[in-house]
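Budget justification aside, the reviewers requested a transparent look at the raw inputs and outputs of the sequence design task funded under Objective 1. We therefore reproduce one unedited record. The lines immediately below are the structure tokens for a 268-residue chain.
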């Protein structure tokens, strides 16, 4: 973990003192800081909580989509905010007892999944769900990760429309306990630890006051970068910029239609 973030000025990993470490005792550097969700502390130190949330998401997105090596227990007690750092603060990652090396094949397919989730590419989502062994439940993946249905008409991070909520409830009512158990049992271990990690991050980010949009955009950006670096490291940034421009155009087009529809309704 320390090696992966050696060039990241916002991340600190406690150093191990090997000369004071034995088979029974692990001696590490003591790092000062407060729990990452301590909003009172952050505001008292004039640190923007939303900026901390964004940086936290970027750090874990980099682990998942770029490094393929994940800290799987990011509850607030394991992540401190230190006032030391070039950016005005740094994140201290503690307790590396639950770390997971993601298979390279899984990492790439998970990158593809997030790109498909952002663009709501239902065919790609279904294909990847089959690869993950949960093809029967592919339509639930967008709900789990992005809060949208697979045929959603709402914008990213905007939640579901009333009609979509009703349709989703009907689908969920049709599910039986055996379906839920079957879904969870068929998920790869890589998927399970990512789900757990993501749930903990969502809770922290929410306490810090960041919008859902920040998480979705961050994951989408790093997923695209993870794919670009694999195909051609030199063109990674270029491909990322092109894909983000495409995403921006799609969003502008969507919001343009929504705005026009709203004005028409007011005129009527």
């Amino acid at each position: 973990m320390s090696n992966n973030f050696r060039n990241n000025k916002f991340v600190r990993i406690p150093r191990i003192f090997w000369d004071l470490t034995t088979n029974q005792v692990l001696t590490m550097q003591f790092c000062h800081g407060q729990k990452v969700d301590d909003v009172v502390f952050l505001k008292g130190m004039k640190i923007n909580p939303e900026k901390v949330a964004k940086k936290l998401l970027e750090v874990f997105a980099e682990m998942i989509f770029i490094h393929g090596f994940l800290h799987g227990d990011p509850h607030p007690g394991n992540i401190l905010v230190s006032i030391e750092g070039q950016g005005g603060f740094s994140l201290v990652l503690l307790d590396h007892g639950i770390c997971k090396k993601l298979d390279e094949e899984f990492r790439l397919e998970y990158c593809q999944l997030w790109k498909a989730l952002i663009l709501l590419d239902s065919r790609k989502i279904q294909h990847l769900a089959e690869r993950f062994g949960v093809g029967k439940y592919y339509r639930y993946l967008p709900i789990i990760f992005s809060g949208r249905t697979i045929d959603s008409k709402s914008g990213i991070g905007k939640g579901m429309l009333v009609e979509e909520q009703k349709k989703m409830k009907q689908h969920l009512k049709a599910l039986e306990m055996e379906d839920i158990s079957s879904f969870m049992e068929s998920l790869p271990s890589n998927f399970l630890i990512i789900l757990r990690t993501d749930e903990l991050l969502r809770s922290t980010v929410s306490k810090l006051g960041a919008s859902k949009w920040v998480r979705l955009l961050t994951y989408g950006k790093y997923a695209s970068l993870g794919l670009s670096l694999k195909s051609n490291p030199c063109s990674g940034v270029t491909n990322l910029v092109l894909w983000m421009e495409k995403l921006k155009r799609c969003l502008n087009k969507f919001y343009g239609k929504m705005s026009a529809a709203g004005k028409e309704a007011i005129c009527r």
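The first helix runs from residue 39 to 44. The chain has ten helices and six strands. Computational costs for records of this kind are itemized in the attached budget.
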